[in-house]
Amino acid sequence: MNKRLTTRKVILVIVLVLVAAVLAFGAYFYTHMKASDAQAKETISSLEYMIPGLDSAEDTDPAQGFTPGKDPLTAFDIDGRQIVGCLEIPALDLRAPVLDKKQEKEAFFVSWISGSPVRGKFRLEGANTDVFAKIAKLKPGERVIFTDMDGVRYVYEVTTQYHLKDWAQATNDLLLCHPSDDQTDFVVGCTSVM
Q1: Measured between alpha carbons, how far is residue 107 from residues 10, 58, 192 in Å?
Q2: In the prediction, which pLDDT does 57 show?
Q3: Would you say domain 49-192 falls under CATH 3.40.50.620?
Q4: Which of 40, 62, 140, 179 is the right S-S partner for 193, CB 3.0 to 4.6 Å?
Q5: Are 164 and 132 in contact (CB under 8 A)?
């Protein structure tokens, strides 16, 4: 009887420790995500002052002409992060700062992986749980805008969605992606309209 009572106490203590650990991790994760979201919003505010025309709500008309920007992209340091521009997806009410290739990935920021808006195959990645959680809802023809630090706006239209393992097979001008598993990325392919 004593052995059975001791075993129950040990199991109860283990369960309580596990519950406490899960709650502590949840609190840490929530706090970290809130802080990252606040930092991304603060970075967007800084970008509105730094990038000419970013703070205007008007959409870019491809018929107005287009002057390509620099390749490679210019990066500016904002609060210890190298930022190369801003990604806007009006249909998702999304506006996110884009980190330089050399930066570590962060929640609520978009990461530049490869290519460029000038050369094409411009690959941007967001974590599945934050910035790009809704990109599967994008429909063909919807606009995606990338504005570099010099104020050059690159306007794209969504054309396709697919899963991709081999990036050499990518053909779109802009590739918005997030990992769907260890070997495959979910991709929204966009074509330049300028």
Answers
A1: 39, 27, 27
A2: 47
A3: no
A4: 62
A5: no
